[in-house]
Design brief:
Length: 61
Protein backbone atom coordinates (compact mmCIF):
# COMPACT_ATOMS: atom_id res chain seq x y z
CA UNK A 1 0.00 0.00 0.00
CA UNK A 2 1.53 3.32 -0.99
CA UNK A 3 1.49 6.62 0.87
CA UNK A 4 -1.44 8.07 -1.10
CA UNK A 5 -3.61 5.04 -0.37
CA UNK A 6 -2.73 5.15 3.32
CA UNK A 7 -3.26 8.92 3.53
CA UNK A 8 -6.64 8.76 1.79
CA UNK A 9 -8.05 6.05 4.04
CA UNK A 10 -6.09 6.75 7.18
CA UNK A 11 -8.98 7.59 9.52
CA UNK A 12 -10.72 4.33 8.65
CA UNK A 13 -7.49 2.31 8.90
CA UNK A 14 -6.60 3.97 12.19
CA UNK A 15 -9.92 2.91 13.72
CA UNK A 16 -9.46 -0.68 12.55
CA UNK A 17 -5.90 -0.81 13.90
CA UNK A 18 -7.07 0.48 17.28
CA UNK A 19 -9.74 -2.23 17.37
CA UNK A 20 -7.20 -4.92 16.52
CA UNK A 21 -4.46 -3.61 18.84
CA UNK A 22 -6.03 -2.03 21.92
CA UNK A 23 -2.70 -0.72 23.21
CA UNK A 24 -2.34 1.75 20.31
CA UNK A 25 -3.05 5.41 20.97
CA UNK A 26 -3.86 8.32 18.66
CA UNK A 27 -0.29 9.53 19.12
CA UNK A 28 1.04 6.18 17.89
CA UNK A 29 -1.09 6.50 14.77
CA UNK A 30 -0.30 10.11 13.84
CA UNK A 31 0.23 10.08 10.08
CA UNK A 32 2.06 13.19 8.95
CA UNK A 33 3.36 13.90 5.48
CA UNK A 34 6.99 12.80 5.27
CA UNK A 35 6.84 11.00 8.64
CA UNK A 36 5.67 7.57 7.48
CA UNK A 37 8.94 5.89 8.48
CA UNK A 38 8.83 7.47 11.93
CA UNK A 39 5.27 6.24 12.46
CA UNK A 40 6.22 2.74 11.28
CA UNK A 41 9.15 2.76 13.71
CA UNK A 42 6.85 3.61 16.63
CA UNK A 43 4.41 0.89 15.61
CA UNK A 44 7.21 -1.67 15.25
CA UNK A 45 8.39 -0.97 18.78
CA UNK A 46 4.91 -0.88 20.31
CA UNK A 47 3.60 -4.01 18.55
CA UNK A 48 6.83 -5.98 18.19
CA UNK A 49 6.25 -6.42 14.45
CA UNK A 50 8.52 -5.98 11.45
CA UNK A 51 7.84 -3.37 8.80
CA UNK A 52 6.76 -6.13 6.42
CA UNK A 53 4.34 -7.53 9.01
CA UNK A 54 2.88 -4.05 9.54
CA UNK A 55 2.46 -3.53 5.80
CA UNK A 56 0.65 -6.86 5.58
CA UNK A 57 -1.64 -6.01 8.52
CA UNK A 58 -2.51 -2.60 7.07
CA UNK A 59 -3.09 -3.95 3.54
CA UNK A 60 -5.45 -6.63 4.91
CA UNK A 61 -7.67 -4.11 6.73
Amino acid sequence: MDTLEIKGNWNELKGKLKQQFANLTDDDLMFKEGKKEEMYGKLQIKLGKTKEELNKIISEL
